[in-house]
Structure formats: structure tokens, C-alpha cells
Specification:
two-stranded antiparallel sheet, 8 helices
């Protein structure tokens, strides 16, 4: 497998990663100009690093998973950022909610429905695996009495579960639509557990948000 990145793609990935980190830092600080003032007064480095590692890496590895599987199926695949949507992500965070659609991996070549489905599924599955990686970080933070470590783990779990479930929604250009078109069984076996886990962790246990 020959996985290559053009300078344009690396630039788009870097810009999307940083902008999402900023947007999530503002969102978790409560949004609005008060959040910006609080971050500037209390320090922006810590919240920004937490957002870059949790939301940022969740996004990056989600997109890279799409690319890796697409290239595995002999596709020409590159990520392209949507700068308008990145701007919207920051603006929405400033008013207290977050809408993030930072871009997508575009690929071309002949594909079967199964291959299309597996490429789409790779992103949400990667987010699910990342949630499992962050879970012991959260537990270790609680056991060690480290607020920073437990926050990093909690955000990592919650954000990646949310990304997995949201991207599997069978609507529009989201991954779930492609997975459903390929296999209703695979869709049910992935979307339902992802949605249930996200709702339980975020809304029942109150972890991460």
C-alpha cells in the first residue's frame, strides 16, 4: 500500500486540526466572548492542548482511516478541508453550540458497494477504538487524583463516541448513509451500539461534557 500525502493535503489536515482545537476549546469554555476572555485570562494553552488531543486527533484519525482503506482499495484519495465550514465551527462555538464539518477525504476510482461501505465505516470505527484508548486514561486520572488527566480521558471518550455515532447517522453525506446503502445488517450492528454508548456515557453518566 502506497500511502502518500501532498503538501496541499498536509496543509489542509493541519489547518483543520488546529481550527477544530480552537473551536472545541471555546465551546467547552462555555462559548461567547466570555469564554474567549476566560481562556485569555486563565490560559489558553491547557484547554487548547486538551481539544487538539481529543477532538483534533479524533477528527484526524477518522479522516486518515478513510484514506487508508480507500488507498487499500487502489483509490486515489486525499483530504480536502472545507474552509467555510471551519469558519462556521469557530463562529458556532462562539455563540454556545458547535457544528463541525471540517472537510472530507475525496477518492476516485471504481468501487463496489462493499468497498464504499468499508471506506465509510473505517472512520467511525476508528473513533470507537479511540474512545477505548481514552477510557483507561480517564480511570487513571481519577485514581491518581489528576484533574488534567481525567479531563483528557473524559473528553477523549465522550468526543470520540459522539463522532462515531454522529457520523453513522444515515443522512446526507454522512458515513452512515453509505454503510446503510451497502448493508443494513452492518449498519444496525454499528450504529445502534455507537448511539447507545454515546447517549449512556454523555447524557447518563455525564462524562466529558
Amino acid at each position: 500500500m502506497n500511502l502518500r500525502f501532498s503538501s496541499h493535503e498536509l496543509r489542509d489536515l493541519t489547518v483543520a486540526w488546529v481550527v477544530l482545537g480552537v473551536a472545541f476549546a471555546i465551546f467547552f469554555a462555555g462559548g461567547g466572548s466570555r469564554a474567549v476572555s476566560m481562556l485569555l485570562d486563565q490560559g489558553v494553552v491547557g484547554p487548547l492542548l486538551v481539544s487538539l488531543v481529543t477532538a483534533g486527533f479524533g477528527f484526524l484519525l477518522h479522516e486518515l482511516a478513510h484514506k487508508v482503506v480507500a488507498v487499500r482499495f487502489d483509490q486515489i484519495a486525499e483530504f480536502r478541508a472545507d474552509y467555510g465550514m471551519l469558519f462556521l465551527a469557530v463562529m458556532s462555538a462562539l455563540v454556545g453550540f458547535l457544528f463541525a464539518a471540517p472537510g472530507a477525504v475525496h477518492h476516485r476510482g471504481r468501487l463496489t458497494a462493499r468497498e464504499h461501505g468499508l471506506i465509510a465505516l473505517a472512520g467511525p470505527v476508528t473513533n470507537g477504538l479511540l474512545a477505548l484508548v481514552f477510557a483507561p486514561v480517564y480511570v487513571a486520572g481519577l485514581l491518581a487524583g489528576s484533574p488534567l488527566l481525567s479531563l483528557l480521558g473524559a473528553r477523549g471518550v465522550a468526543i470520540n463516541l459522539f463522532l462515531a455515532a454522529f457520523n453513522l447517522v444515515p443522512f446526507g453525506g454522512l458515513d452512515g448513509r453509505t454503510v446503510l446503502d451497502w448493508s443494513k445488517g452492518v449498519f444496525a450492528l454499528t450504529f445502534l451500539p455507537a448511539a447507545a454508548a454515546a447517549v449512556f456515557v454523555v447524557f447518563v453518566l455525564g462524562i466529558g461534557f
